[in-house]
């Protein structure tokens, strides 16, 4: 990664433009992420999706946002959708210069794995690999996701093997191409009836080719005045203790009640959880209808002309970022005091031989529906409902437990998330509701 020290000064001068952009890669060993120098890497990340298709093509905009992200203390972004064929040099270099890493989702609006009729086919594989081809060239690509919230109900558990099959094939593709070992993971919805089976399932194989390189959770359990124990984080911690691969929050930051305090950061990046978890990604950078933004590019524009491509869903998506107050400062203040050091790679390495893998969850009637002894789907395979129902005793009814700390915790105004997940019908519906709420004056803006 770094230029040889024996280069002559003349050569060094010529290489200056290149060496400025040198950033350590991140790798996963055992249950932790490390920089090349062996220091443990903890994520302080921001979900960044200014435009639905790809926020990493507008270098000037990335640079304007990076100024504020650096002020916040961020060292990572998460991007849900990118255009693999676009040029990302400008943004990726600018993020690297600021020490900011990328976690990127490999699917598009049309290629995400679907829990109702799961399949994993060549069209999906080609698309996922194209994104990997594009982003593996950047040293600040820290990880890729083969899915985001694919499973959202207990009867969606049939899709879990398809998520894992995608990870298996993308890892094999990465290795065949000789790319560095960019960690391949999954971002799960926080659904009580799927916990802890999904978490265990994706990490239970003793064959590293058939398990994820990391697992992450979109969790909104800690809301307002809460604590480590009342939020349920103590339970998340208990069930993640001894987990064999890195685990982190791929979305967090409950927004009800306002203002957002981000007090959960002190637990995640502090002594309660930093021995197990690798940090958190805050949802999200831009203020839009779902009201999770850390910054805004101006008030909403409910009647923008259809030709104004800078406005999507009534929100301007370009310009000078203005912090949402006091949320932005609340997060900044926490992160400034939270600098876990973890363990060094050299000290940790000797203990990795003692890592054990959780038991693969067994299937239960009306519950987790994956037979732990069945092989993963092959590329091109589609879930066969009829064959499956022959050896199942029915779908059962999911009662959706919602008591105490075992409750599911998904984002409020889930429409925002669905927009990211790429449901065009929902997007339109969503746009209509913005107009409505604008008219009713129900949307509050922090300027
Ligand atoms: C290792 O590299 C990281 C990232 O560049 C840096 O923050 C950290 O201080 C370095 N650790 C040591 C021990 O030099
Ligand atoms: C799960 O079951 C519910 C109700 O029984 C149904 O509405 C939903 O579509 C099912 N989901 C999947 C993924 O099969
Ligand atoms: C993969 O499935 C999608 C539907 O989700 C379909 O449009 C596409 O043609 C399939 N690709 C192949 C190679 O079968
Ligand atoms: C591990 O999994 C890979 C991918 O499915 C497979 O090709 C390989 O044979 C497995 N290795 C062992 C030792 O089972
Ligand atoms: C933790 O695991 C136990 C059993 O393995 C399960 O009953 C419980 O719901 C899990 N808790 C969470 C918060 O996932």
TrEMBL record:
Listed under GO cellular component are: plasma membrane; side of membrane
Q: Where is the composition biased (Low complexity)?
A: 387-412
EC number(s) reported in the record = 2.4.1.-
Q: Where is this region: Disordered?
A: 386-412
Taxonomically, the superkingdom here is: Eukaryota
The main place the protein resides is: membrane
Q: What class of enzyme is it?
A: transferase
Bilayer topology reads: Lipid-anchor; GPI-anchor
State its location(s).
Answer: Cell membrane
Q: Which UniProt keywords apply?
A: Disulfide bond, Glycoprotein, GPI-anchor, Lipoprotein, Membrane, Signal, Transferase
Per the UniProt entry, the signal peptide is: 1-22
Share an example GO biological-process annotation for this protein.
fungal-type cell wall (1->3)-beta-D-glucan biosynthetic process
Q: Name one GO molecular function term.
A: 1,3-beta-glucanosyltransferase activity
Q: Which SUPFAM superfamilies match?
A: (Trans)glycosidases (SSF51445)
Annotated PANTHER family: 1,3-BETA-GLUCANOSYLTRANSFERASE GAS1, 1,3-BETA-GLUCANOSYLTRANSFERASE GAS2
Q: What does this protein do?
A: Splits internally a 1,3-beta-glucan molecule and transfers the newly generated reducing end (the donor) to the non-reducing end of another 1,3-beta-glucan molecule (the acceptor) forming a 1,3-beta linkage, resulting in the elongation of 1,3-beta-glucan chains in the cell wall. Involved in cell wall morphogenesis.
Q: Which family does it belong to?
A: Belongs to the glycosyl hydrolase 72 family.
UniProt protein name:
1,3-beta-glucanosyltransferase
